[in-house]
Amino acid sequence: MILTTGALLIYSVLVTSSARALPVITVSAQNHSYHNCALDLLLPKKYNSMSGNAFTLESTDHQEMLPCQIIKTGKGSHLFFIVSDIEKGNKKSYHLKKSISVNSDMVAVRENSRDIEVKIGTTLFTKYTTHSGPNKPFFYPIYTPDGHHLTRQWPVEDVASDTHDHPHHRGLWFTHGSVNGVDFWGETPGTGKTVATGFKELVSGPVCGSFITTSDWLNPDGSLAATDNRTIAITLLPNGDRLLDFEIVFKPHGKPVVFGDTKEGMFGLRTTDTLAPSRKHGGHMINSEGQKDGDCWAKKASWVDYYGPISGESTYGISMFDNSANLRHPQTWHARDYGLFAVNPFGLHDFGMGAKGAGDYTVPADGSMTLKYRLLFHKGDTETGGVIAQYHAYADPPVVSIQ
Q1: 163 closest CA partner among 171, 173, 155
Q2: Which helix (H) or strand (E) is 123 found in, with range?
Q3: CB 377 within 8 A of CB 242
Q4: CA distance linking residue 303 with residue 296, whole number of Å
Q5: How do residues 15-48 score in pLDDT, each as one tens digit?
Protein backbone atom coordinates (compact mmCIF):
# COMPACT_ATOMS: atom_id res chain seq x y z
CA MET A 1 0.00 0.00 0.00
CA ILE A 2 1.26 3.46 -0.88
CA LEU A 3 0.62 6.07 1.80
CA THR A 4 0.53 9.38 -0.08
CA THR A 5 0.95 12.42 2.12
CA GLY A 6 4.01 14.14 0.64
CA ALA A 7 7.21 14.88 2.43
CA LEU A 8 5.43 14.92 5.81
CA LEU A 9 3.49 11.73 6.52
CA ILE A 10 0.25 11.44 8.42
CA TYR A 11 -0.38 7.89 9.58
CA SER A 12 -3.91 6.65 10.08
CA VAL A 13 -5.42 3.62 11.74
CA LEU A 14 -8.59 2.78 9.87
CA VAL A 15 -11.79 2.25 11.75
CA THR A 16 -13.81 0.16 9.31
CA SER A 17 -16.88 -0.66 11.35
CA SER A 18 -18.77 2.38 10.03
CA ALA A 19 -17.17 2.52 6.56
CA ARG A 20 -20.33 1.32 4.82
CA ALA A 21 -22.18 4.42 5.99
CA LEU A 22 -19.67 6.75 4.35
CA PRO A 23 -19.60 7.68 0.66
CA VAL A 24 -17.40 6.82 -2.32
CA ILE A 25 -15.68 9.81 -3.95
CA THR A 26 -14.82 9.65 -7.68
CA VAL A 27 -12.40 12.04 -9.37
CA SER A 28 -12.59 12.35 -13.18
CA ALA A 29 -9.83 14.11 -15.15
CA GLN A 30 -11.84 15.20 -18.16
CA ASN A 31 -9.78 18.04 -19.65
CA HIS A 32 -6.24 17.86 -18.21
CA SER A 33 -3.74 15.69 -16.41
CA TYR A 34 -3.20 16.73 -12.80
CA HIS A 35 -0.39 16.49 -10.26
CA ASN A 36 -0.81 17.37 -6.58
CA CYS A 37 -4.30 18.70 -7.27
CA ALA A 38 -6.08 20.23 -4.29
CA LEU A 39 -9.83 19.57 -4.32
CA ASP A 40 -12.79 20.95 -2.38
CA LEU A 41 -16.07 19.02 -2.47
CA LEU A 42 -19.29 20.34 -0.92
CA LEU A 43 -20.87 17.27 0.62
CA PRO A 44 -24.61 16.52 0.34
CA LYS A 45 -26.77 17.85 3.15
CA LYS A 46 -27.07 14.45 4.83
CA TYR A 47 -23.37 14.73 5.72
CA ASN A 48 -23.66 18.24 7.19
CA SER A 49 -23.01 16.97 10.70
CA MET A 50 -19.58 15.65 9.68
CA SER A 51 -16.52 17.75 10.43
CA GLY A 52 -12.95 17.35 11.66
CA ASN A 53 -9.76 15.54 10.70
CA ALA A 54 -10.63 11.96 11.65
CA PHE A 55 -11.11 10.77 8.08
CA THR A 56 -9.05 9.31 5.28
CA LEU A 57 -9.60 8.40 1.62
CA GLU A 58 -8.56 4.92 0.51
CA SER A 59 -8.57 4.14 -3.21
CA THR A 60 -10.91 1.36 -4.26
CA ASP A 61 -7.92 -0.62 -5.55
CA HIS A 62 -6.28 -0.28 -2.09
CA GLN A 63 -3.13 1.23 -3.60
CA GLU A 64 -3.42 4.77 -2.32
CA MET A 65 -4.44 6.43 0.92
CA LEU A 66 -4.98 10.18 1.12
CA PRO A 67 -5.27 12.41 4.16
CA CYS A 68 -8.37 14.57 4.10
CA GLN A 69 -10.39 16.81 6.34
CA ILE A 70 -13.97 17.97 6.55
CA ILE A 71 -14.65 21.60 7.39
CA LYS A 72 -18.11 22.75 8.34
CA THR A 73 -19.04 26.18 6.92
CA GLY A 74 -22.18 28.21 6.54
CA LYS A 75 -22.75 26.51 3.18
CA GLY A 76 -22.38 22.98 4.57
CA SER A 77 -19.58 20.48 5.10
CA HIS A 78 -16.65 20.59 2.68
CA LEU A 79 -14.26 17.71 2.03
CA PHE A 80 -10.68 18.79 1.31
CA PHE A 81 -8.08 16.42 -0.14
CA ILE A 82 -5.22 16.28 -2.66
CA VAL A 83 -4.95 13.85 -5.57
CA SER A 84 -1.29 13.16 -6.32
CA ASP A 85 -1.55 12.11 -9.99
CA ILE A 86 -4.36 11.47 -12.44
CA GLU A 87 -4.01 11.38 -16.21
CA LYS A 88 -6.40 13.08 -18.60
CA GLY A 89 -9.34 10.79 -19.38
CA ASN A 90 -8.88 8.67 -16.26
CA LYS A 91 -10.89 8.26 -13.08
CA LYS A 92 -10.00 7.42 -9.50
CA SER A 93 -12.41 6.36 -6.78
CA TYR A 94 -11.91 6.49 -3.03
CA HIS A 95 -13.75 5.21 0.03
CA LEU A 96 -14.16 7.86 2.69
CA LYS A 97 -13.37 6.19 6.00
CA LYS A 98 -13.13 7.17 9.61
CA SER A 99 -9.63 7.07 11.03
CA ILE A 100 -7.56 7.95 14.03
CA SER A 101 -5.03 10.53 12.82
CA VAL A 102 -1.86 11.93 14.30
CA ASN A 103 -0.20 15.19 13.26
CA SER A 104 -3.69 16.42 12.38
CA ASP A 105 -2.56 20.06 12.65
CA MET A 106 0.05 19.83 9.89
CA VAL A 107 -1.26 23.23 8.73
CA ALA A 108 -1.77 25.09 11.99
CA VAL A 109 -3.62 28.42 12.13
CA ARG A 110 -3.40 30.25 15.44
CA GLU A 111 -4.27 33.73 16.67
CA ASN A 112 -1.33 35.45 18.36
CA SER A 113 -2.26 38.80 19.85
CA ARG A 114 -3.57 40.85 16.92
CA ASP A 115 -2.04 38.58 14.26
CA ILE A 116 -2.68 35.18 12.69
CA GLU A 117 0.26 32.79 12.48
CA VAL A 118 0.27 29.91 9.98
CA LYS A 119 2.71 27.09 10.65
CA ILE A 120 3.54 24.04 8.59
CA GLY A 121 4.22 21.50 11.29
CA THR A 122 6.15 23.52 13.83
CA THR A 123 7.73 25.95 11.32
CA LEU A 124 6.31 29.38 10.56
CA PHE A 125 5.11 29.78 6.98
CA THR A 126 3.48 33.21 7.17
CA LYS A 127 1.83 35.72 9.46
CA TYR A 128 -1.17 37.93 8.77
CA THR A 129 -0.19 41.05 10.67
CA THR A 130 -2.71 43.75 11.49
CA HIS A 131 -0.50 46.34 13.23
CA SER A 132 2.98 46.31 11.66
CA GLY A 133 2.21 48.96 9.04
CA PRO A 134 0.55 52.37 9.10
CA ASN A 135 -2.54 51.73 6.98
CA LYS A 136 -3.24 48.09 6.10
CA PRO A 137 -2.99 44.48 7.25
CA PHE A 138 -0.69 42.23 5.22
CA PHE A 139 1.08 38.87 5.11
CA TYR A 140 4.67 39.06 6.32
CA PRO A 141 6.96 37.20 6.49
CA ILE A 142 6.38 34.50 3.88
CA TYR A 143 9.00 31.76 4.05
CA THR A 144 10.27 28.99 1.80
CA PRO A 145 10.20 25.50 3.37
CA ASP A 146 13.87 25.94 4.31
CA GLY A 147 13.26 29.25 6.04
CA HIS A 148 14.25 31.93 3.51
CA HIS A 149 12.23 35.08 2.80
CA LEU A 150 10.12 35.11 -0.37
CA THR A 151 9.09 38.75 0.10
CA ARG A 152 11.30 41.80 0.56
CA GLN A 153 12.02 42.42 4.24
CA TRP A 154 12.28 46.23 4.10
CA PRO A 155 10.43 48.30 5.28
CA VAL A 156 8.89 45.89 7.80
CA GLU A 157 12.42 45.09 8.94
CA ASP A 158 15.37 47.45 8.63
CA VAL A 159 17.55 45.38 6.30
CA ALA A 160 20.29 47.49 4.74
CA SER A 161 20.91 45.11 1.82
CA ASP A 162 17.30 45.34 0.59
CA THR A 163 16.11 47.95 -1.88
CA HIS A 164 14.50 50.91 -0.12
CA ASP A 165 11.98 52.14 -2.72
CA HIS A 166 8.19 52.15 -2.38
CA PRO A 167 7.80 51.81 1.41
CA HIS A 168 4.11 50.92 0.96
CA HIS A 169 5.11 47.59 -0.63
CA ARG A 170 4.79 45.37 2.45
CA GLY A 171 4.66 41.60 2.02
CA LEU A 172 1.35 40.57 0.44
CA TRP A 173 -1.58 43.00 0.68
CA PHE A 174 -4.92 44.14 -0.77
CA THR A 175 -5.72 47.84 -1.28
CA HIS A 176 -6.32 50.31 -4.11
CA GLY A 177 -5.12 53.77 -5.07
CA SER A 178 -8.51 55.36 -5.72
CA VAL A 179 -11.58 54.42 -3.66
CA ASN A 180 -14.07 57.25 -4.13
CA GLY A 181 -10.97 59.29 -4.93
CA VAL A 182 -9.13 58.33 -1.71
CA ASP A 183 -5.72 56.67 -1.93
CA PHE A 184 -5.58 53.47 0.13
CA TRP A 185 -2.48 52.19 -1.71
CA GLY A 186 0.17 54.64 -0.56
CA GLU A 187 1.21 55.61 2.95
CA THR A 188 1.70 59.36 2.70
CA PRO A 189 -0.33 61.73 4.93
CA GLY A 190 -3.97 61.96 3.89
CA THR A 191 -4.34 58.38 2.68
CA GLY A 192 -7.11 56.02 3.73
CA LYS A 193 -6.68 53.06 6.08
CA THR A 194 -7.80 49.45 5.92
CA VAL A 195 -8.18 48.34 9.53
CA ALA A 196 -8.62 44.70 10.55
CA THR A 197 -11.59 44.32 12.90
CA GLY A 198 -11.45 40.67 13.91
CA PHE A 199 -10.86 37.00 13.16
CA LYS A 200 -13.24 34.05 13.13
CA GLU A 201 -13.55 30.41 12.04
CA LEU A 202 -9.89 29.47 12.54
CA VAL A 203 -9.29 25.96 11.18
CA SER A 204 -6.19 23.73 11.31
CA GLY A 205 -5.75 20.33 9.71
CA PRO A 206 -3.66 17.74 7.87
CA VAL A 207 -4.44 19.21 4.43
CA CYS A 208 -5.24 22.88 4.91
CA GLY A 209 -5.80 25.66 7.39
CA SER A 210 -8.06 28.67 7.05
CA PHE A 211 -9.45 31.74 8.74
CA ILE A 212 -11.82 34.62 8.09
CA THR A 213 -10.94 38.22 8.86
CA THR A 214 -12.99 41.39 8.58
CA SER A 215 -11.82 44.92 7.77
CA ASP A 216 -13.04 48.52 7.80
CA TRP A 217 -12.05 50.92 5.03
CA LEU A 218 -11.64 54.31 6.72
CA ASN A 219 -11.40 57.65 4.94
CA PRO A 220 -8.73 60.16 6.06
CA ASP A 221 -11.31 61.85 8.33
CA GLY A 222 -12.06 58.53 10.02
CA SER A 223 -15.46 57.97 8.39
CA LEU A 224 -16.35 54.48 7.21
CA ALA A 225 -16.30 54.00 3.44
CA ALA A 226 -16.75 50.23 3.27
CA THR A 227 -16.21 46.90 4.98
CA ASP A 228 -14.83 43.63 3.72
CA ASN A 229 -14.82 39.95 4.62
CA ARG A 230 -11.65 38.01 3.72
CA THR A 231 -11.45 34.22 3.63
CA ILE A 232 -7.91 32.84 3.52
CA ALA A 233 -6.97 29.18 3.11
CA ILE A 234 -3.47 27.69 3.09
CA THR A 235 -2.93 24.22 1.61
CA LEU A 236 0.18 22.06 1.97
CA LEU A 237 0.93 20.07 -1.19
CA PRO A 238 2.66 16.68 -0.97
CA ASN A 239 5.90 18.05 -2.48
CA GLY A 240 6.14 20.81 0.14
CA ASP A 241 4.76 23.60 -2.08
CA ARG A 242 2.03 25.78 -0.60
CA LEU A 243 -1.18 27.32 -1.89
CA LEU A 244 -2.74 30.47 -0.48
CA ASP A 245 -6.34 31.15 -1.51
CA PHE A 246 -7.66 34.66 -0.97
CA GLU A 247 -11.31 35.64 -1.33
CA ILE A 248 -12.56 39.11 -0.48
CA VAL A 249 -16.17 40.32 -0.35
CA PHE A 250 -16.22 44.12 -0.42
CA LYS A 251 -19.34 46.04 0.71
CA PRO A 252 -19.87 49.83 0.54
CA HIS A 253 -21.13 51.62 3.62
CA GLY A 254 -23.93 54.10 3.08
CA LYS A 255 -23.20 55.11 -0.50
CA PRO A 256 -21.76 53.66 -3.72
CA VAL A 257 -18.02 53.10 -3.98
CA VAL A 258 -16.11 53.84 -7.18
CA PHE A 259 -12.85 52.00 -7.73
CA GLY A 260 -10.97 54.51 -9.85
CA ASP A 261 -8.94 54.01 -12.99
CA THR A 262 -5.37 53.91 -11.64
CA LYS A 263 -2.51 51.48 -11.93
CA GLU A 264 -1.92 51.69 -8.17
CA GLY A 265 -3.63 48.50 -7.06
CA MET A 266 -4.82 46.00 -6.06
CA PHE A 267 -3.79 42.55 -4.78
CA GLY A 268 -0.04 42.93 -4.55
CA LEU A 269 3.15 41.29 -3.37
CA ARG A 270 6.71 42.62 -3.26
CA THR A 271 9.17 39.83 -3.94
CA THR A 272 12.58 39.46 -2.38
CA ASP A 273 15.09 41.31 -4.56
CA THR A 274 16.77 38.24 -6.06
CA LEU A 275 13.56 37.29 -7.87
CA ALA A 276 13.33 40.67 -9.64
CA PRO A 277 14.64 40.58 -13.26
CA SER A 278 15.97 44.14 -13.10
CA ARG A 279 18.21 43.26 -10.14
CA LYS A 280 20.24 40.88 -12.35
CA HIS A 281 20.42 38.01 -9.86
CA GLY A 282 18.85 35.51 -12.26
CA GLY A 283 15.21 36.22 -11.45
CA HIS A 284 12.50 36.22 -14.11
CA MET A 285 8.81 36.81 -14.62
CA ILE A 286 6.52 35.12 -17.15
CA ASN A 287 2.76 35.21 -17.71
CA SER A 288 0.14 32.91 -19.19
CA GLU A 289 0.52 34.60 -22.60
CA GLY A 290 4.26 33.87 -22.78
CA GLN A 291 5.35 37.46 -22.16
CA LYS A 292 8.45 37.80 -20.00
CA ASP A 293 10.04 40.13 -17.46
CA GLY A 294 9.18 43.80 -18.10
CA ASP A 295 6.80 42.87 -20.93
CA CYS A 296 4.36 41.43 -18.36
CA TRP A 297 3.45 44.90 -17.15
CA ALA A 298 0.02 46.26 -18.22
CA LYS A 299 -0.92 43.01 -19.94
CA LYS A 300 -3.99 40.85 -19.49
CA ALA A 301 -3.14 37.38 -18.24
CA SER A 302 -4.68 34.51 -16.30
CA TRP A 303 -1.53 34.09 -14.22
CA VAL A 304 1.92 35.52 -13.65
CA ASP A 305 4.90 33.65 -12.20
CA TYR A 306 7.94 35.24 -10.56
CA TYR A 307 10.94 32.97 -9.91
CA GLY A 308 14.63 33.18 -9.15
CA PRO A 309 17.43 32.17 -6.78
CA ILE A 310 16.88 32.35 -3.05
CA SER A 311 19.92 32.54 -0.78
CA GLY A 312 22.20 32.17 -3.79
CA GLU A 313 21.36 28.57 -4.61
CA SER A 314 17.87 27.06 -4.81
CA THR A 315 15.30 28.44 -7.21
CA TYR A 316 11.87 29.29 -5.83
CA GLY A 317 8.87 30.96 -7.39
CA ILE A 318 5.60 32.70 -6.62
CA SER A 319 2.64 32.40 -8.98
CA MET A 320 -0.55 34.43 -8.75
CA PHE A 321 -3.72 33.08 -10.41
CA ASP A 322 -6.71 35.19 -11.42
CA ASN A 323 -10.03 33.43 -10.89
CA SER A 324 -12.14 33.07 -14.05
CA ALA A 325 -15.20 34.37 -12.16
CA ASN A 326 -13.48 37.67 -11.35
CA LEU A 327 -14.45 41.04 -12.77
CA ARG A 328 -12.80 41.63 -16.19
CA HIS A 329 -11.03 38.27 -16.24
CA PRO A 330 -8.32 37.90 -17.40
CA GLN A 331 -7.33 40.92 -15.37
CA THR A 332 -4.50 43.35 -16.03
CA TRP A 333 -1.22 43.23 -14.14
CA HIS A 334 0.71 45.95 -12.37
CA ALA A 335 3.69 43.58 -12.45
CA ARG A 336 7.02 45.41 -12.53
CA ASP A 337 10.40 43.80 -13.15
CA TYR A 338 11.86 45.37 -9.98
CA GLY A 339 9.77 43.04 -7.75
CA LEU A 340 6.24 44.46 -7.62
CA PHE A 341 3.70 41.80 -8.41
CA ALA A 342 0.07 42.97 -8.45
CA VAL A 343 -3.16 42.19 -10.27
CA ASN A 344 -5.45 45.16 -10.93
CA PRO A 345 -8.71 45.12 -12.96
CA PHE A 346 -9.24 48.88 -12.68
CA GLY A 347 -6.21 50.61 -14.23
CA LEU A 348 -7.23 50.36 -17.86
CA HIS A 349 -6.27 53.91 -18.87
CA ASP A 350 -2.94 53.71 -17.06
CA PHE A 351 -2.35 50.37 -18.79
CA GLY A 352 -3.04 51.91 -22.22
CA MET A 353 -6.44 50.28 -22.73
CA GLY A 354 -8.79 53.24 -23.00
CA ALA A 355 -9.54 56.85 -22.18
CA LYS A 356 -9.23 58.19 -18.65
CA GLY A 357 -11.89 56.57 -16.51
CA ALA A 358 -12.26 53.51 -18.72
CA GLY A 359 -11.33 51.31 -15.78
CA ASP A 360 -13.70 52.89 -13.25
CA TYR A 361 -16.04 50.44 -11.57
CA THR A 362 -18.93 51.29 -9.23
CA VAL A 363 -20.12 48.98 -6.46
CA PRO A 364 -23.71 50.02 -5.58
CA ALA A 365 -24.50 51.12 -2.05
CA ASP A 366 -26.55 47.98 -1.45
CA GLY A 367 -24.27 45.72 -3.48
CA SER A 368 -20.96 43.94 -3.10
CA MET A 369 -17.91 42.90 -5.09
CA THR A 370 -16.24 39.51 -4.72
CA LEU A 371 -12.72 38.80 -5.95
CA LYS A 372 -10.78 35.54 -5.70
CA TYR A 373 -7.10 34.78 -6.22
CA ARG A 374 -4.70 31.92 -5.57
CA LEU A 375 -0.97 32.05 -4.94
CA LEU A 376 1.34 29.09 -5.49
CA PHE A 377 4.64 29.17 -3.60
CA HIS A 378 6.75 26.62 -5.43
CA LYS A 379 10.21 25.13 -5.74
CA GLY A 380 11.88 25.59 -9.12
CA ASP A 381 11.08 27.75 -12.14
CA THR A 382 7.77 27.98 -14.00
CA GLU A 383 8.21 24.64 -15.74
CA THR A 384 9.72 22.56 -12.97
CA GLY A 385 7.34 24.14 -10.45
CA GLY A 386 4.35 22.84 -12.41
CA VAL A 387 2.72 26.26 -12.64
CA ILE A 388 0.54 25.52 -15.67
CA ALA A 389 -0.77 22.27 -14.17
CA GLN A 390 -1.55 24.05 -10.91
CA TYR A 391 -3.43 26.77 -12.79
CA HIS A 392 -5.51 24.08 -14.52
CA ALA A 393 -6.24 22.57 -11.10
CA TYR A 394 -7.54 25.99 -10.00
CA ALA A 395 -9.36 27.13 -13.13
CA ASP A 396 -10.57 23.81 -14.55
CA PRO A 397 -10.30 21.14 -11.84
CA PRO A 398 -11.30 17.49 -12.19
CA VAL A 399 -14.95 16.63 -11.79
CA VAL A 400 -15.60 15.21 -8.32
CA SER A 401 -18.73 13.15 -7.69
CA ILE A 402 -20.08 11.36 -4.62
CA GLN A 403 -22.22 8.27 -4.19
Answers
A1: 155
A2: strand 123-129
A3: yes
A4: 10
A5: 333 444 688 999 999 999 999 999 999 999 888 8
